[in-house]
Amino acid sequence: MKITKAQSLANRAHIVKTASELFRERGYDGVGVAELMAAAGFTQGGFYKHFGSKADLMAEAAATSLSQSVASTESLDLRQFISFYVSRDHRDGRSEGCTLAALCGDAARQSGEFKATFAEGIERTLAKLQQKYQSDEQAPRDVARAKMIDMLAHAIGAVMLSRACPDDAPLADEILEVCRAEMTASLPQ
């Protein structure tokens, strides 16, 4: 049975969403095409009707999830962002969490074109954070950008370090608590 163009687009979007969640949970090498398609409810053969390669899907899933990460924190001020991002819930919610914290290490091993997708996501994230910072503090643009680069790197690093510890390790929580406190203290009162 032939499907409509609208259904084909909906199927593709569902595959991208499923891939994004699985990639954030297990990394790019931790998910095969057959498993991914089964998780999305489709056959492996249908994959190539939508994507030229797994790398194409990885790039689209990354772009989509990076945009969603930025959108999900849109309404938060910087203190709320820190509290949300550098938390046990975010740390444990790999498949729904930030793509940067989940996949920066994997992205570093990909092609330059793929890295450009991540760089665009990082730039969008920094721009949103910088807007929040500049509305709270009348800092010059270059100062605000430097502060937000430091804060984003600190937040991502905290989540990554915490995830590298066993789930029940006191160190996992200590890393988050210390980094969250230091980041919050570094913001203007």
Automatic annotation (TrEMBL):
Residues 9-69 form the HTH tetR-type domain. Residues 32-51 bind DNA. SUPFAM superfamilies: Homeodomain-like (SSF46689), Tetracyclin repressor-like, C-terminal domain (SSF48498). Keywords: DNA-binding, Transcription, Transcription regulation. InterPro entries: Homeodomain-like_sf, HTH_TetR, Tet_transcr_reg_TetR-rel_C_sf. The keyword Iron does not apply. Transmembrane segments: none annotated. One of its GO terms (molecular function) is DNA binding. This is TetR family transcriptional regulator.
